[in-house]
Amino acid sequence: MSAAMADRPRRIVIVGGVAAGMSAAARARRLDEHAEIVVLERGAHVSFANCGLPYYVGGEIEDQSSLLVQTPATLRAALDLDVRVHHDVIALDAATRSVTVRGPEGDEQLAYDALVLAPGAVAVRPPLPGLDSPRVSTLRTVEDAVRLRERIEAGAEASARRAVVLGAGFIGVEAAEALRRQGLEVELVELAPHVLPPLEAEIAAPVAAELRRLGIRGRAGIAAESVEHHEDHDTVVLADGTRLEADIILLSAGVRPDTAAFEAAGVACERGAILVDEHGRTNLPDVYAAGDAVLSVDAVTGLRRPVALAGPANRAGRGIADHILRPDSARPLPAPVGTAIVRVGELTAALTGANSAALSAAGIETDTLHLHPTQHAGYFPGAAQMALVVHIRRGDGLLLGAQAVGREGVDKRIDVLATAIRAGLTAADLIDLDLAYSPVYGSAKDPVNLAGMVGVNVLDGTLALWYAQDWDRLRAEALILDVRSAAEYAVGHLPGTLHIPHTELRDRLDEVHDAAAGRPVRALCGSGVRSHIAHRLLTQSGFDSASLSGGMLTARAVLGEGVLAH
Amino acid sequence: MSAAMADRPRRIVIVGGVAAGMSAAARARRLDEHAEIVVLERGAHVSFANCGLPYYVGGEIEDQSSLLVQTPATLRAALDLDVRVHHDVIALDAATRSVTVRGPEGDEQLAYDALVLAPGAVAVRPPLPGLDSPRVSTLRTVEDAVRLRERIEAGAEASARRAVVLGAGFIGVEAAEALRRQGLEVELVELAPHVLPPLEAEIAAPVAAELRRLGIRGRAGIAAESVEHHEDHDTVVLADGTRLEADIILLSAGVRPDTAAFEAAGVACERGAILVDEHGRTNLPDVYAAGDAVLSVDAVTGLRRPVALAGPANRAGRGIADHILRPDSARPLPAPVGTAIVRVGELTAALTGANSAALSAAGIETDTLHLHPTQHAGYFPGAAQMALVVHIRRGDGLLLGAQAVGREGVDKRIDVLATAIRAGLTAADLIDLDLAYSPVYGSAKDPVNLAGMVGVNVLDGTLALWYAQDWDRLRAEALILDVRSAAEYAVGHLPGTLHIPHTELRDRLDEVHDAAAGRPVRALCGSGVRSHIAHRLLTQSGFDSASLSGGMLTARAVLGEGVLAH
């Protein structure tokens, strides 16, 4: 035992005490009772509930104390960790294996045998004139959240009730809802074409509608140009001249790795993010890094990008402790799949793996499937459709990514698909999954099974799809055949389509033949189930046919309600 | 095209029109517009919501029409299927490739090119005296459910309000709750040692408590011996002499394959269940079988058993249609993993893969993990613990089975684990899953990730476990060390234990040393997290130590509340 002990690091220094850093510290202690473990945290708190901050702002989490999962005292008692808050690491010297720490009592040198860099990221501050206004907040720390809620509660008395949220990413959307829940008027401004930019347009559309239902005014595809400061409010000026008056401006325009001190010390970085190997090692000996500050290799596309997610950060911190203390047996850290989720009002939106943009950037040929299954058996009360988008690799059907939005069951399906992506499953494998079925929880053919069935049908040519994005071209080139019921058709349909309910199609193929006049037939229905049946009938009857992926539900999300004829 | 067409079966005959049969029929039509597809169903309904029957009885599903997902007319219109209800196949002649069908207009011979046997199963009727009473019902068909609800509604007027449910499997438990929801007094009688026999005892215990909370009186480990018939009620007599008066007796003692006519015709069976190959083929040419009537090979244990689940039945029916019409490209049918779920009051209980009994029967060496994680972040309102049991293969950690019970999030974790089992993942792989995290839905370390971490700790010796089942032996042989807080200890603890809170353990190791007096130390806490930390400290301090798997939560479920000292 003593021989092995002699090789172990005696002092492990960890920079940053939240997700990755604290996971590394706790795991290190469990593996080695005798190491000295020092955690240096710039802020006032360690191991706090970062992802809970918007819910504290919104009042759903009532007490600030709930956000503080651990304190230096509890960590000392349970794990004998030396946790020092208000300690900022301002320099690193790899030659002497030491860091310079600036604390309340001044600077000191601290030597390390192993060093873990988990400094996290800071809010991006775009170069907008006026953004230094005291009415501008960010939401990264407990202090940020506490100050913001204090301002809201003060504002409630002073009738200062208008908020502008700049950036409609996950935190921006959560914060906008939190502010709205507190009764403020909320404007949400996003530079990208739609809210929650990582989502596909057809998944983001229901989210945007839900934000409107909550009373949040969203504007996408537009830049903020400046913030004007007035005595009793600020004004956010947008690129189109719109002026939004605000008592509170929440800046949520993304984050950047907080790595300047380490890059200056020779830690290899790319675009400010620390480069690490499969064990979390940087280019410097015995210096590791994890969390929002590192560059990850995407598990699906192989592209390098920062992944600011708590799950991968915790996992990497823990895995780094394994490698520091058990270098021979530590498993490589997995490349992140990038699974994320957000509640918006009564909806859940979630994604895993790559989206269309990432697949396109990576040059991966993809088939995309759109489904609208219910979260549980349709005959059981409360059944509600979700929108599910699944990307599979053309040819072999390898699962590449998935997104969903709906009222219930979205988190479950995305987690199953995230597991399937990690396991390297294909569309065919999804058919074979034995998922838990009772009418309360699912269907005998679960949405994930259905996605596999549609995928294999596409891969082997049983099903040919067309996409709502191609509507403008196809309405000119093809006969668009709507096979829904007369009642559904009457409520709203794409203009210029032939309407034959799928139950009558066998007897009315002559009409299709005459209307098509040699053109291809592009069928559609509500969600793609009946048009698949119609496609099979048409293709076996000699037509060049295809079925609209996701049906009218997807078409309305992609094209908007304005396209409909009545 | 005509050459390929010529090889295709012209008439596909399908026996049984519910899950497997109707999936085969619908898929066959989508693949082949020109085949004649005949579905022969003995009962009055096809494609009905079998798993919804208890909810119709309980009134949660209000209308009988909701149970009828399709009718012969809708199937004719949409898919050109020739669906014949009240048609019972009474004989099969493989030599002439024909079946004898008994319909309302008499018997007829029907030739087939391909035959799919999906006759399902019928309720087992144990040889109990008096079980032929008209007050005894089963719950297998829409007619069963309608009659039962009529009797309940009639009973409401006549004050006939007592039900005895014989058999506490999934359907028995669902039916008991449905009857209770209708206001009846319900007694639930199970021969096996606990309700829901496929569940581990520690998962079944919270279910039994929830049944009691619902007002259902459950008796497990006891047989019914007879049913006595009286003028205005029946009496169920149990083996211990208990007499239960009943206006309604629901027999739910399992099912057996409904295969006598086919076995007589030469279809190879084992214990009455049809033997099939990986494409669903029986021993007879062009005769396939699927659903509750076939014997499956368990995906985990390799043991052969009937799997009466809708998901595998639907999947097999569809896969058989693929093999009939596309024999060269049809994929093999997967062996069922056996995932099942049930709602009981406010709880969900679910399982996937093999349980302890099956693993033991198969001779597979297993490590079993018990966890009690919350369904989402503990700091977010509404966090509630679930009980999670995971079986991994000793040595390599291959995931073998999992069960869970709790208020929320059980279905999600079991579906993720079912996917992991199908994919052949190990405990280490579970650590690496990127699951969707926001405090509303999960934790940065999801319950599934945690199970992986505990599993790898056990596999590599970082963690040694002891089990509540070994309490009687270990209390004599070891020092039992309770590391919970003083407040937790005071509420109830195992007798004769040493109590040192984990936060004080480092400073009080001398006390442990003295109390142990050379014996092993067996630590415990609330759920196993703190005793793991204690174990690490103890083992690195030279003690022979282990941590109680699942902590006091599991111990109370296994040993009962009576074992506690206060």
From TrEMBL, chains A, B:
Its cofactor is FAD. The keyword ATP-binding does not apply. InterPro entries: FAD-bd_OxRdtase, FAD/NAD-bd_sf, FAD/NAD-binding_dom, FAD/NAD-linked_Rdtase_dimer_sf, Pyr_nucl-diS_OxRdtase_dimer, Rhodanese-like_dom, Rhodanese-like_dom_sf. The keyword Oxidoreductase applies. Its EC number is 1.8.1.14. Residues 474-564 form the Rhodanese domain. Keywords: FAD, Flavoprotein, Oxidoreductase, Redox-active center. It is an enzyme of class 1 (oxidoreductase). Belongs to the class-III pyridine nucleotide-disulfide oxidoreductase family. This is Coenzyme A disulfide reductase. It comes from Microbacterium azadirachtae. The gene is cdr.
